Amino acid sequence: MPKLSPTEAEKAAGLPIVRILIDTKNGGRLAPDEVMAYLHEKVKEPFSPLALTADVRALWDSGFFSDIKVDLTRTGVGVALRFILQERPHIRDIEYEGNSEIDSDKLGELIKVKANTTLNRNALRESVQMIQLAYREQGYELAEVTFELKDYKDNEVGIVFKITENNPVTVRSISFIGNEHISSTELREQMQLGKGSFFSFGTGGPYQQSLLEQDIVMLSSMYYDRGFVDVRFSTPRVMLTPERDAADITLILTEGPRFKIRQLRVYEVDADGNEIEPLGGRRALRQLIHASPGEWVNRTAVGKDVQAVRTLYRDAGYANVEADSPVDIDRAHHEVDIKIRIVRGPLVTIERIEVRGNNKTRDKVVRREMLIEEGKLFSETGLEDSRKRILSLGYFDRVDVSTSQGSAPNKIVINFEVNERQTGQFNVAAGFSSIETFILSATVQQSNFFGNGQTFALQASLSGLRQLVSLRYFEPYFLDSDWSFMAELYNQYFIFPDFARLTRGAQVTFGYALVQPTLRLGVTLTAQHDSVDNTTQSFFFGATGGSNLLPRVPLADLFTAGRTMSVRPTLTLDTRDNRLFPTSGVFVQASTEFASAYVGSELEFIKHRLLAQFYYPLGGNSGAPGSGFVLKMRNELGLVTSPNDSNLPIYARFFLGGIFDVRGYRLRQIGPRLPITNALDPNAPPINGGNGFVFGGNLQAYTNVEFEFPILDKVGLRGVAFFDMGNAWNLEDRFCKTAPAPQFAKVVNPCWEGPSSLLYLRTSAGFGARWFSPLGPLRFEVGFPLMPLPYEEKSVFEFTIGNSF
Questions:
Q1: Cα first-last separation, the chain
Q2: What is the rounded CA–CA span in Å between residue 225 and residue 743?
């Protein structure tokens, strides 16, 4: 084979470079010095063909040029290089035509090409695909997207994306062929495709190819979990209607035979493959496996069992445990053998724990939430619980955990990567409530003061029925101990239907976690002064129609005021999955407040309260806080007594009615009633048309049952249906001996008559909507008393800002 003649570049190899010129054919936006920065070849250095190839590649990879040529000239003293470049156009502007369903700003966030950058054809084509994908996710499966380039002077172009949206495609029907063991209805219920939103008005929701593919994977898993390990789905048939606005989808599948477990064995081997006694013994290990021979194969259940085995070993320090579950399939007999084989590996200790990303928050604030320690054995559950505890602080948007090999095979390094969020808040809000009319509030709060994990909060609010100013300080680890500490100063003025109360005081609370993090003990010390008057006028709307009740007999001592010094121990059990929007778990709190002359209190009473809230998820959870269907129940019992009959003020008694306890009744209008006249003369006409005055009870009990469901989870709009019941009763003889309000004596009896009084609970049912808005949770609810008294309304609509239970 003849030898090829050397190229000009090869002939010039080794000669000195005497000149490098940059020639941009279309004017160029890059200065020659900027182009030279990409070149390794330099004047006076020896020329190399390989270096020239690398320089051309570097210029091309820069993305600025659409054509690159090099003119090499050999002279008597060396080599002259001339780079002839054609720059890619510069994008001056980007426009959109034909888009009405997705605004231009949103499309601009999606696309890869941007104004004031160099045009990249690949990025332009990807941008077209991303716009099409965005439309498909909105149900516009037939949307068409093209682009056009407009030429400007100075090698600039404008990009025009031309969009033809066409009609949105909805799912008209989904049918199945080949499903013999699982009904079409059950399969269809498991699919997300074809499920319209609350506002879809009967349509089947938008057609999305990506969602259909996810559903097929999910349906396959459903079959695997019922023993059909050979199930196969063919390419789905999607038929558009003649109007091209709806689709009929047919899924064709082959179920195959159903397989049972013939043999299931779980065992451990050492590094040489010899079987050994497993951790905790064979019996304890086998109890972690719920599958049994003779059952239908359930792949998900077996996977969970294997994970439980891994967690058992990892919690004992065997971080590198291996546990696999190969399946031997006997297709002739439709049986499978599952063997879970464990290799525990060495015990692993935590060599080091690294915390990164906490630029403001001090290390100790993060580390004291950890349930793992350096030098101790690794624990998978401890690691995950530590991550959850750090995240629940509220100081970080994200907490990521990773592990890496330590200095030896039996050592591990754990890395916590946090992303800090703003913990300072300054909120000013205004709103309306059916209870408090106009509401103004302002809050200044720092939840991570100087990165120490302490909270300072100053709050002020003003509404038609109250004004409040409070200053609060909270230290979760008082003096670096396991005790928490909170101190609060407050000034509160409340306007109730028949009196007003002014409270000035302070509280100090110490808390301790008996069982971390679910069971907590708290002790609150309170020192406050109350004064009561008959002012019943709104801050915004004037008089509310209250009566001058203060001098009335036998009610005068109900308006006792003075100094209260009390101690209130509280025991709290909290297993809720989310404190703001819980969907599962329980919250139980029991407290007893002692106000006694022995601690300097002018008012003496003992107040017991028991609150129990239960949350049960009913499915449909999308993973977002508060999503899905949730059954809720709230129960509260209260009892307050005083050693001195004339020492229990009206504001310490129990009143029910309203959006916060028994809905369908007006605020604080449920409870025992007494006849009161408009004047001291006993023959004077009674107030409230003879329906009596609600003076509050010593004993209360109420229950709320709610079914909460999503309406538009993406924007936090949810619906609720509820049933409430409850009442308040009096236990004091002086009121028992007084004649009750003449009407409905059993319902509003001023005296508790034992268990028979429970037959006269006030009940209601209703519905409402809740919106978790940027201003806070908004509640709109209408309640219907099930057995209203003649003077009560048939329905009560209320709305307010604030969470439910």
A1: 89
A2: 63
